[in-house]
Amino acid sequence: MSVTATHKGGILALRNIEKTFAEDSKKLKVLDGISLEIGEEFVAILGPSGCGKTTLLRIIAGLEKPDSGVVEVQPAGARIGFIFQFPTLLPWMTVLENVALPLHVNGLSWSEAKEKARKYLTLVGLQSFEDFYPRELSGGMKQRVNVARALAIEPTILLMDEPFSALDPLTAETLRSEILDLWTWGVTTVRTIIMVTHSVDEAIFMADRIVVLTARPARVAGIVSVDIPRPRDRRSQEFQKLEDKVYELISA
């Protein structure tokens, strides 16, 4: 069974995505007919641990292939940025070089790549740290470098795999707000954000819609629209009602 959600301004469509991992004689089905349509919006994906949320994100990014089903992106060939759960910085490169490297690999000269990298380091507040090495940065600063690197390739779609889970609560809250600001102010090329999270609170605080997956093999249990103006007050009745609604879907 597949459940399809629609949203205006189609950017991404998942059509009946299925995925099974096999090793020797063992098979583990993780995704079972996932169908979604995502527009210019912020979508959070919630579900039990091990249900296949990260696998689905990796399939969207092209890092994994589904066994069946189709991923459609509009416009065709649109760039996809990926922010991983943990910083994936090269320790022998400076902050500036880490952000510039993907740009250089994609054809820019080092000088052009570094110039563009500086723009995105400025956006995340790290313009004064371009000559630092990863070992000299805090966890939050490393994740900001990850954000800058993902934005520097100028993606249409930004994927985030629990990007705040390894940070202390204060740093995580600050970075959540900064990413929302960058997106809502339209200062980047990103039109769509898809975030995997285990936190219902985080999903409601950030997303326009929340896709709740079932336990493995994952299907779409339901989709919740978050029609609360930003910035959102976690203490409001509307926020609390949505929390109850999402938890009902998760526990169903």
Order of strands across the biggest sheet? 5-6-7-3-8-9
Low-confidence stretches: 1-8
Shape summary: globular
CATH classification class of the domain at 1-79 and 191-252: Alpha Beta
CATH architecture of the domain at 1-79 and 191-252: 3-Layer(aba) Sandwich
- State the helicity in percent bands: 25-40%
Alpha-carbon distance between the two ends: 16 Å
Query: If you compute it from the alpha carbons, what radius of gyration comes out, rounded to the nearest whole angstrom?
Result: 18 Å
The computed structural class is alpha/beta
Plain-language structure description:
By secondary structure, this protein is an alpha/beta fold. The chain has a domain at 1-79 and 191-252: P-loop containing nucleotide triphosphate hydrolases (Rossmann fold). 34% of the residues lie in helices and 24% in strands. The strands form 2 sheets. It has a 6-stranded mixed sheet with strand order 5-6-7-3-8-9, with helices on both faces. Strands 2-1-4 form a 3-stranded antiparallel sheet, with helices on one face. Helix 5 (169-184) links the parallel strand 6 and strand 7. The radius of gyration is 18 Å and the shape is globular. It starts with 11 loop residues before the first strand and ends with a helix.
Descriptors for this entry?
7 helices, six-stranded mixed beta sheet, 252 residues, alpha/beta, disordered N terminus, 24% strand, three-stranded antiparallel beta sheet, Rossmann fold, single chain
